[in-house]
Fold these 2 entries.
Entry 1:
Amino acid sequence: MGKILMKGNEALAEGALIAGCQGFFGYPITPSSEIAEYMARKFPQLGGIFLQAESELAAINMVYGAAATGARVMTASSGPGISLKQEGISFIAEAELPCLIVNISRGGPGLGGIQPAQSDYFQATRGGGHGDYRLIVLAPSSVQEMMDYAIEGFDLADRYRIPVMLMAEGTLGQMMEPIYVREPVKPAIEKPWATTGCAGRSPNIINTLHLSPEVLEHRNQHLQRKYDQLQANESRAETFMTDDADLILVAFGLMSRVVKKAVIEARKQGIKVGLIRPITLWPFPDAIIKEAAEKAQMFLSVEISMGQMIEDIRLAVDGAVPVDFYGRIGIIPNPEEIYSEIIRIAEREGF
Amino acid sequence: MDREEQVLFAGFGGQGVLSMGQFLTHAAMGEGKNVSWVPSYGAEMRGGTANCLVTIAEEEISSPLTENPMTAVIMNRPSLDKFEPKIQPHGTVVLNSSLVDRLPERDDLNVLQLPVTELAEKMNNPRGANMILLGAYIQKTSVVSLDDVMNNFDVIFKGKNPKVIEKNKEAFLAGVEYARKNWK
């Protein structure tokens, strides 16, 4: 089949259906609402459940309950709604329940605005709620990847028994690009832990309260081992022209494509620049950045925030080279703007 | 067409500005080009401002965004005021002269104007103004091939009432005709 033109939010929703998603629980918020609308249209025909909850708090706890039965389920929201969901996400992480949580992100803090931003980076990559936990965080950069990562997100969630967050700038949810629609996937992972009725077996209990400190510590160590494994095996990034680069720009999501164009233009002027695009924001691609820092002179973090990912870059670089920052909020910087910033740095540093 | 063309469509909400962009995006995709369509989104409403940016390229599109489009299709005066300074040097501006009461101040721009609101009203098809403008623009610039557009018309409007499709086609062809006669 040829390509079809789809909006990012719709491609993501269709991707979830392709992955065998059986339930959506959410509360609408711009710029994510098309995901809920798409599910509301599709699920009645497919026999799945679409439920617009009375609040984000209710929605995430419905995800918690439904995921406990072993079904592939999801929710979608934007910054303020994702904040409301944090308590539930912490519970789901400790209960080790697979699910997909989508943040079509906009600028904060507070109610903020509805224009695109990446300022929920800390919230996404540090857990967000209480306790020692992590999410896998995927950052698509195109409408095609909105679909692909939704499918992959469910797979990773099942394999590691972990909530997966897919985070994309509002613009990526709203824009249209032609995509190849993927073939339907049959979820292949057994879920012997699911609460499916205990006839013929002992009950499965899903609980996150551990009053015994020994049990609690044991649980935390168990989770930590899983996170170590994820860091070792699942961190991903795309690199572009980094081999001989003096200056390496780091950007994720739709932002990374804008940066790529600026890099291409700067290369035409003979400036040695490259791009690293983290695909997994957690686990962060430390090793790729650390390796690049052995040859590059400098890094530039480009974000639609006041500077959040830059902290992870600095940790990865570990003092080897300086890390500079360029950011806007509510506005995606244009390629022309990034190009000017590259030229400014190149002139200053003599690249 | 250059290897990459970025076209901005801007006007009042309700003028079909986002639809114009989608139409062009569909048409270019039908020709096998790489395309993207990025809308302004906000608390949009009828009478507010709306715009979208269409990128058409032979190769993979790196950035679907730009500060400086090569072409701007302008449906109202506030959009001209806002976007005129941003169009690339020697770029093209297509104006709805029914609602834009001034010409661009810059002298490097290629200016194409037509009174689409009036033309649409004369055709008794006021909602077809956007299609008239699009027809004229495509005829003049060949950003996509006219034949391909005509062949794909029904595909682009898939799911719409045949009468609606017919009205849009009429308006589009009126624009093509206008450009043939008036834009040498």
Note: The mean pLDDT of chain B is 92.
Entry 2:
Amino acid sequence: MAAAGPLQGVRVLDFGWAWAGPYGCTLLAFLGAEVIKIEGQKRPDYSRRMSMTTGQTFDNLDQSTVFNDMNLNKESLAVDLSNPKGVTMVKRLVGLSDVVMGNMRPGVMDRLGLGYDDLRRLKPDIIMCWSSAAGSTGPYRGHVGYAPTFALLGGISHLTRYPDSPPTLLSGSIDAASGTTFALAALLALNHRLRTGRGQFVDVSSTEAIAVFSGHAVLEYALNHRVQGPLGNEDEAMAPHNVYPCQDDDTWITIAVATDQEWRALVGALGGPGWAQDPRFAASQGRWLHRQELDRHLEAWTRQRTDHEAMALLQAAGVAAVPSFNNRQIYEDPHTQARGVFTKMRHPAIGERIVMRPPWLLSDTPAAITAPAPLLGQHTAHILRDLLGLTEPAIAELKAEGVVYDPTPPLPD
Amino acid sequence: MADALARGADALEGIKVLELGSLVAAPYCAKLLADMGAEVVKVEPPAGDPARARGPFFKDLPDPETSALYLYLNTNKRGITLNLEVASGRALLQELLAQVDVFIEDTPPGRLEEWGLPLAHLRQLYPGLIVTSITPFGRTGPYRRYRAYDINLFHGGGQGFMVRNDALGKRPPLTGGGYLAEFDGGLSAAVATLGALYHQGLTGLGQHLDCSIQEAVMALERATLTRYPNEVAGSATTPLSAGSRGRSGMSGTQPCKDGWVTIAALEEHQWAGLMKLIGAPPGSLRPTPELDELLRAWLAAHTMDEIYHGAEALSVPAGRLHTSKDLLASAQLQAREFFQSIDHPRTGALPYPTAGYRMSATPWRARRPAPLLGQHNTEVYCGWLQRSQVELTRLADAGAI
């Protein structure tokens, strides 16, 4: 086993569902935490069945590639929480855990006898970190939502559109950003507990996790009573600043120039064309005012080149220029390959998969993918025996009563 | 109040952070720590963080002290000026690093080495120091020295292509609004930093974190971006962009009487709720062109608020458009005190967004507005580094600060 991540020794119980909850726990698992996913067979995580983001559906609860991507490095305890004995098992696990996380609708855990007040009686320094669409307080506390609703309610959709197009919903990234915020909140509480010995309850709102990205727009409204409008690919001050078509069909390059120095570098990289000597383009304000004309000149240049040629020429001169990569390009790109962003792993029910490693390189306690997402109930026996100390007959009895489950036998090939 | 100020009332109380960051990603990472009580000192060049030159400005008058972007990203920090172009400035940086737990920096790879402060040397000098490097493409690989602004990183991370959904047709891939790639880069780096800080709290040992903004943007689309190598590499050549969104005609945003809404009736009971809401005939179990038409007509006859509240009352996930003005007016955000007023000497009091989380024992607190340029030079150089006022003047005269 390689060196483990910085959260080695931290145990997390994950009651997550869909993306925002599970992905937050996965980030902690990337950092070395032991994450146990608590799932029932009656209502398993719906990422095991379908994905709104990718449009895929899966026939078998263990064959969801999307579930795999969002639940790497975890263990799975399959337990029926509608059975009091199931709740008792979970309560015993809480006593052995550091953090309880999830994103079911506020109130669900309280009804199960697993609310924060219940949990801290079991373990006084427990951290409970709960995420929901609108948060656990306020008039909309019971509301339900997914990434598209967070994007629209959180204000980012309004800023992500052409002035003449509908607001866009971005994509699953909105859920994952909410999940990243969820991980951040848990880590803040863990750091606090480390120095004070105290746990706490943390209430995450997915809508607010997105609304913080509009902070400057909110302040602009407060300052000037003006609603910041959608800019498409333009910028309020920079020009050129756009996405330009390249030689091959549906290939594009982004170019952004902020300073006079960068402008001179751009002109030099283009070979000092006559149009660029126009005094209207000499200063940033003039470039911005005449940005559409500027864009036409640049487009004539980018259309003669591939996106990679344009990037290499412009970057060599010190100009910020990067293609708008599609899935294939980003996978085949020499930079992502050199940094080992994509790695292979084997999933027992899916087979060999290419997955994306954690987005940070830690020098001394590496974050890493150490295991695929668990089959439903894959670690039930291990957890009951090795963590809770149950005997084999006791485990067999719980299974026979339908309180806990082993994984479904794999499908024959 | 006494309770709130008691020891341990801040999640990161006692943690000292030095930020050498510009624009959005690194300053946002440091702000996330400052908001939770870390003592963050922001180092700016004498000309200031370039975010000060970005608008929007108070009354639209360019002023390095009233940039909304700068004010938002730098609340709760102290600020000093330091000229790292001169040797005496670089010596001060090294002295400051001796004082802190975390160094958040966004210098281009190679710059610290040019300054005579290579990472290996810093780590040897200060074994407990966490160095969080936040750069566009990370510190290794062929693009490590490439320049990139937010637009370049959003598209370079593969998300621009995904935002272009059916509604945009063949228009160019679209950029996430308002520095989204940089925010995601800063947020991701803060997660890694807090992981390393936990380890440092247990062991006393620091480390170096290489955080690529491109990878932070990519990570959020890990399930979509990996479809290419897993599903079509070697066979089909058509790259997959983002997938469909939900069921049939409800994908994307839909126009309604007074704006835009989205409905995500993904599960069967949610679909049933939606059918009830729009008065669909019994037995409408799955989408049909007729039901899509009925839905569109129903949306066109109702307002954003009617649709949002009507849907949520039936447990149907729904959203309505929120602009910055709407966010400020949201009953939910107001009830949760999502905005807190912070006074600033040049703009007066403004409502600032707080955070996506409420911590019961260590609540978000406004401690101070964003610093004026060099506002805390005396406090930091004379306090942390024990320089006298005379020495401070000499440093200023020598162009070091």
Note: The CA atoms of residues 157 and 168 of chain A lie 5 Å apart.
